[in-house]
Amino acid sequence: MQGLMQDWPLLTHRIIDHAARIHGDREIVTRSVEGPIVRTTYAEMRKRALKVAQRLDREGIKLGDRVATIAWNTARHMETWYGIMGIGAVCHTVNPRLFPDQIAWIINHAQDRIVITDLTFIPVLEKIADNVPSVERYVVLTDKAHMPQTTLKNAVAYEDWIAEVDGDFKWKEFDENTAAAMCYTSGTTGDPKGVLYSHRSNVLHSLMANSGDALGATSKDTMLPVVPLFHANSWGIVFSAPAMGTKLVMPGPKLDGESVYELLSTEKVTYTAGVPTVWLMLLQHMEKNNLKLPDLKVVICGGSAMPRSMIKAFDDMGVEVRHAWGMTEMSPLGTVGALQSQFAQLKGDAKLDVLQMQGYAPFMVEMQITDDAGKELPWDGKTFGRLKVRGPAIAGAYYQVDKQILDENGYFDTGDVATIDKYGYMRITDRSKDVIKSGGEWISSIDLENLAVGHPQVAEAAVIGVFHPKWDERPLLIIQPKEGQTVTRDDILQYMDGKIAKWWMPDDVVFVDSIPHTATGKILKTALRDQFKDYSLPTAAA
Ligand code: ADP
Q1: Residue 21 contacts by C-beta under 8 Å, 6 or more apart in sequence?
Q2: Which residue, 62, 251, 502, 519, shows the most beta carbons closer than 10 Å to its own?
Q3: 523-536 pLDDT, tens per residue?
């Protein structure tokens, strides 16, 4: 027997309709690319998104056509998402931090017809313009007064472009499984792979993100997504914030500690989300200038492991830290580390131990850990194995890649190695390709990095496996000291001694001026492995 309820397709534009109707006056504040702080509302944003939809329709953009955005977090950028998706076109967010050749590769693979971009990225797009024949026109997110001379094909200032229509337009009708957006994973190995979100997956993901123990911001809150819109579906915030009527503060191009602090402070932000690198810059700025953030309630931190020292710094400020783990393929939320009731009273190190884990899966994410043969491993908080996931907002295939990515039970292998405890709290111990295999046993590079970075003179730490004649691989610790500080190999090893098993201790420590990062802010281990490929450990000679 079928249920007798209404068939109400889960389409993303219903979210902005809702925000405009119920939370129409709530603000979206932007540090604009041109400089000044500008303000709009959800009601206004919906009107402009409809104009984008109408203008794209007039341009001949059809259901399933790809429209790229290469842009900072601004209200203009956000409204283009709704406009593109609202006619059933696919909003393809491109990460401007990629190399120009990679950007061209991705635009070609997606066959983007229009590119919507910021003033900042005109030079790089001009460089690759001859290599991206599918692009018919470039729309620059600015007005006539700020529009520069450019060789980009059919370039037009965004404000002029949408002024050509009156906004008297209705969203198109289509099935909820229609593609809404796409985002390529950075592909540290091999070509980037396109993840293709649907309307349904985005709407379900926004409900998941809005549950109290996940992102959990409300209509009384103000959210500042430092995480870029072009990184993993903006962690869903473009959908979750308007669904709740949360006020948004968009940081535009300025993501340094001082600029982020200024917005957090002046706009009385209560929730914010981003990767550890940006929090490092913020905390350093605050420490140096003895600053406080009395309104800030929750910091969500993911993308790579959040160091314990950082968790403590926020916890000491009275800010609730939620460590999150996810990936582009998961829309991206996989786990969030809010404190369950049995942990609510914990203090000091015991509390930090829980907060340092990556958290537990919200409803709609199912996880398991398995050994290499696919056998499920116990949730005892100790055994580590391959982390696999399934759910309605998790990729089932990559765009135009003819390869099965799910196992026979419908699980996707995340490429991460993790433990899960009896409460469901997951702890990433490594990427499967970064784990150090020493004498047949595994050593977690992330655990070593987290420990080393707790040393007061260390800015950042990376651990890679280096060839060893007896053990196959042993850990090499690479340290970037804090600016103007000196620290020795022995200081570091002494600091780590006793905090981990003896056989996990790095065989050597080396110092570098800067640790390389990927376009999404993760430590670029392939580059480090390259740099140290001929490195001979002092223990190797023995
Ligand atoms: P990329 O395109 O850089 O691969 P993703 O955001 O999809 O971008 O990367 C996902 C990966 O990032 C995860 O599989 C995991 O290895 C790592 N990651 C994300 N969040 C965390 C976290 N909180 N702790 C440790 N690793 C994390």
Answers
A1: none
A2: 251
A3: 999 899 999 988 98
Global confidence as pTM = 0.90
Q: Please check whether residue 401 lies inside any domain of the structure.
A: yes
SS3 250: strand
- Domain for residue 486, yes or no? yes
At 459, which helix (H) or strand (E)? Answer: strand 458-468
The amino acid at residue 433 is K
Give the C-alpha separation, 46 to 38, whole Å: 17
State the Cα–Cα distance between residues 388 and 367, nearest whole angstrom.
6
In this structure, are 411 and 453 located in the same domain? Answer: no
Ligand 1 atom with the shortest distance to the CA of 518: 3
- What's residue 187's pLDDT? 59
Q: What are phi and psi of 2, to 5 degrees?
A: -90, 150
**Among 382, 437, 470, 499, which one carries the catalytic annotation?**
437
Q: What is the average per-residue pLDDT within 59-72?
A: 98
Please tell me the residue having the least CA distance from ligand 1 atom 19: 303
Helices (H) and strands (E) in the chain, counts: 15, 24
Out of 27, 79, 176, 329, the active site residue is 329
From 186, 331, 416, 431, mutation site for ligand 1 pocket: most ligand atoms within 8 A of C-beta = 416
| Separation of CA 184 and ligand 1 centre (Å) | 13
Residue 304, classed as helix, strand or coil, is: coil
Contact between 515 and 460 under an 8 Å Cβ cutoff? The reply is yes
Q: Which residues have a Cβ under 8 Å from the Cβ of 66 and sit 6 or more positions away?
A: 89, 90, 92, 110, 111, 112, 113, 182
Statement: residue 214 has pLDDT above 60? yes
Judge if 53 and 174 occupy the same domain: yes
* 3-state SS, residue 317: coil
Based on the domain organization, do 411 and 512 belong to the same domain? Answer: no
CA-to-CA distance for 512 and 42, rounded, in angstroms?
47
* C-beta separation of 29 from 57 below 8 A: no
- Name all residues whose Cβ lies below 6 A of ligand 1: 185-186, 232, 302-305, 323-328, 332, 358, 414-416, 428, 431, 518, 520, 522
3-state helix, strand, coil in the chain (%, to 5): 30, 25, 45
Concerning whether 437 is annotated as a catalytic residue, the answer is yes
Same domain, 54 and 156: yes
Over the stretch 300-351, which tens digit does the pLDDT of each residue have?
999 988 989 999 999 999 999 999 999 999 999 999 999 999 999 999 999 9
Domain's final residue, options 197, 213, 246: 197
What are the phi and psi torsion angles at 523 (to 5°)? -65, 130
Q: Which H/E stretch holds residue 167? A: none
Token pair for 445 = 């590079």
- Please give the helix or strand (H or E) that residue 336 lies within, else none: strand 333-336
The range of the structural domain enclosing residue 465 comes to: 436-531
